[in-house]
Design a protein that fits this description.
Layout (H helix, E strand, L loop, with lengths): L9 H7 L10 E3 L6 E3 L9 E2 L2 E2 L7 H5 L1
Antiparallel strand pairs: 1-2, 3-4
Length: about 70
Protein backbone atom coordinates (compact mmCIF):
# COMPACT_ATOMS: atom_id res chain seq x y z
CA UNK A 1 0.00 0.00 0.00
CA UNK A 2 1.36 3.42 -0.97
CA UNK A 3 2.12 5.80 1.86
CA UNK A 4 3.23 9.45 1.47
CA UNK A 5 6.89 9.94 2.28
CA UNK A 6 6.50 13.47 3.70
CA UNK A 7 3.72 15.70 5.01
CA UNK A 8 2.29 18.22 2.55
CA UNK A 9 2.89 21.81 3.61
CA UNK A 10 0.01 24.06 4.64
CA UNK A 11 0.60 26.28 1.59
CA UNK A 12 0.35 23.33 -0.78
CA UNK A 13 -2.83 22.09 0.89
CA UNK A 14 -4.34 25.59 0.82
CA UNK A 15 -3.45 26.03 -2.85
CA UNK A 16 -5.23 22.80 -3.71
CA UNK A 17 -8.33 23.80 -1.75
CA UNK A 18 -8.49 27.39 -3.04
CA UNK A 19 -11.49 26.66 -5.31
CA UNK A 20 -13.52 24.68 -2.77
CA UNK A 21 -15.23 27.70 -1.19
CA UNK A 22 -18.96 28.42 -1.44
CA UNK A 23 -19.90 30.79 -4.26
CA UNK A 24 -21.52 34.09 -3.31
CA UNK A 25 -25.26 34.44 -3.79
CA UNK A 26 -26.14 36.63 -6.76
CA UNK A 27 -28.55 39.37 -5.73
CA UNK A 28 -30.35 42.17 -7.54
CA UNK A 29 -32.57 45.03 -6.44
CA UNK A 30 -36.33 44.68 -6.80
CA UNK A 31 -37.62 47.17 -9.36
CA UNK A 32 -40.75 47.87 -7.31
CA UNK A 33 -39.45 48.32 -3.75
CA UNK A 34 -35.62 48.29 -4.13
CA UNK A 35 -35.15 45.34 -1.75
CA UNK A 36 -32.12 43.11 -2.32
CA UNK A 37 -33.38 39.71 -3.53
CA UNK A 38 -31.88 36.66 -5.24
CA UNK A 39 -32.26 36.53 -9.01
CA UNK A 40 -35.25 34.68 -10.50
CA UNK A 41 -37.17 34.83 -7.19
CA UNK A 42 -40.44 36.54 -6.26
CA UNK A 43 -39.83 39.52 -3.97
CA UNK A 44 -41.06 38.60 -0.47
CA UNK A 45 -41.68 42.25 0.45
CA UNK A 46 -43.89 43.39 -2.44
CA UNK A 47 -44.70 40.15 -4.33
CA UNK A 48 -43.40 41.35 -7.72
CA UNK A 49 -41.57 39.25 -10.31
CA UNK A 50 -40.39 40.42 -13.73
CA UNK A 51 -42.26 43.78 -13.45
CA UNK A 52 -45.57 42.05 -12.59
CA UNK A 53 -47.50 41.70 -9.34
CA UNK A 54 -47.53 37.91 -8.94
CA UNK A 55 -48.73 37.44 -5.36
CA UNK A 56 -49.70 39.36 -2.28
CA UNK A 57 -46.78 39.74 0.13
CA UNK A 58 -46.83 37.73 3.33
CA UNK A 59 -47.74 39.90 6.31
CA UNK A 60 -46.21 39.14 9.69
CA UNK A 61 -48.47 38.93 12.75
CA UNK A 62 -46.84 41.97 14.36
CA UNK A 63 -47.66 44.14 11.33
CA UNK A 64 -51.31 43.04 11.28
CA UNK A 65 -52.02 44.29 14.82
CA UNK A 66 -50.26 47.62 14.36
Amino acid sequence: MAVPKRKHSNARTGSRRSHDHKPTVQTTLCKECATAIMTHVICPKCGAYMDRKVMEPKVKKREQGA
